[in-house]
Write a structure and sequence with these properties.
Layout lengths: L1 H18 L13 E3 L2 H9 L6 E4 L13 E2 L1 E2 L2 E2 L1 H6 L4 E4 L8 H7 L4 E3 L6 H14 L3 H25 L6 E8 L4 E4 L6 H8 L3 E2 L12 H7 L3 E5 H7 L2 H7 L7 H4 L3 E4 L11 H12 L9
Helix pairs in contact: 5-6, 6-12
């Protein structure tokens, strides 16, 4: 009799697990996610969903845990075969992936693909965090991150005001594009780097070159920035500040080159807004207004 009762109770518990499961996670099973946008990668980790990501694009380098994941190509030069080989339950991106045939290929292969928005402003980043929180069943965590982000952005604004800056340096961002294997000027497009520079008390240098794509030595020299921000991969590719100054076209002819005002900055801290943007702006602020030869860690 006791054995019959025990079997019956076990069966009841087994079937009730699905019937009375956690409402917040119902329908949001553990998934195999391939993430193709760097800001989505950071946000998913912040939401506690990083353990579901099985592969990322090469530009997804934050947090450090993302660097341990398999990669499926640069976000504008992806491999459809590599994505499909990961057998993901979900592929997420933010409509900035390439080449053009990759999306039709992975869709035709039957993969579940979901597009989310960008994070080109602090407000759009907060809206995206909210959307991700709802989609992945982490609304409370998203709200907590947004509240912390509001506080850090206000702290950055207060820090800039307290610095009482008298001279505003002209700033240019030079980035190495791994998709095209070229250096190009990233600032001057009224995009995220420009917003970050302004928030840190800098002035964006006017760069007069069509499309601001492949770098022009003449245009860099004519723009003559006081400070050049070099994103991490392009800076490290040269190996030192001296090599960056001498080997990147036009840099040696600028105030930044002559005065050795080249600062290394992580790409993922500069080209989208997210949970750490307030702290990133404060870091940039100190770099722009510090004495020469001080670089980011």
């Amino acid at each position: 009799m006791n054995r019959i009762i025990l079997v019956s109770l076990t069966a009841m518990l087994f079937f009730s697990c699905g019937r009375f499961g956690n409402k917040e996670t119902e329908g949001k099973k553990q998934q195999r996610i391939v993430c193709l946008s760097k800001h989505l990668t950071e946000m998913l980790f912040a939401l506690g969903k990083g353990n579901q990501i099985v592969a990322v694009d090469l530009s997804s380098t934050y947090p450090d845990s993302a660097k341990l994941l398999k990669t499926v190509g640069y976000h504008r030069a992806l491999s459809a075969e590599a994505i499909i080989a990961m057998t993901p339950d979900l592929v997420i991106h933010s409509n900035d992936i390439g080449p053009e045939n990759v999306l039709p290929q992975i869709t035709a292969a039957g993969l579940n693909v979901k597009a989310f928005g960008g994070a080109n402003t602090a407000d759009s980043a907060k809206l995206l965090l909210k959307e991700l929180g709802i989609y992945f069943g982490a609304e409370a965590k998203a709200d907590s991150i947004i509240n912390a982000m509001n506080l850090s952005m206000q702290r950055a604004a207060d820090s800039l005001k307290a610095m009482n800056i008298k001279d505003t340096p002209n700033v240019m961002v030079i980035h190495f594009g791994r998709a095209n294997n070229i250096y190009f000027v990233m600032s001057g497009r009224k995009a995220v780097p420009d917003k970050m520079i302004a928030a840190a008390g800098g002035k964006v240098t006017h760069y007069d070159a069509k499309g601001a794509r492949q770098i022009s030595a003449e245009a860099v020299a004519e723009a003559n920035p006081d400070i050049i921000i070099a994103t991490d991969y392009g800076f490290d590719k040269m190996g030192s500040m001296e090599k960056f100054i001498t080997d990147v076209p036009g840099v040696a002819l600028t105030n930044a080159g002559r005065n050795k005002r080249i600062v290394r900055f992580e790409e993922h801290d500069l080209i989208y807004f997210g949970p750490r943007s307030g702290d990133n702006i404060i870091q940039l602020m100190h770099l722009l207004h510090s004495k020469p030869n001080v670089q980011a860690k």
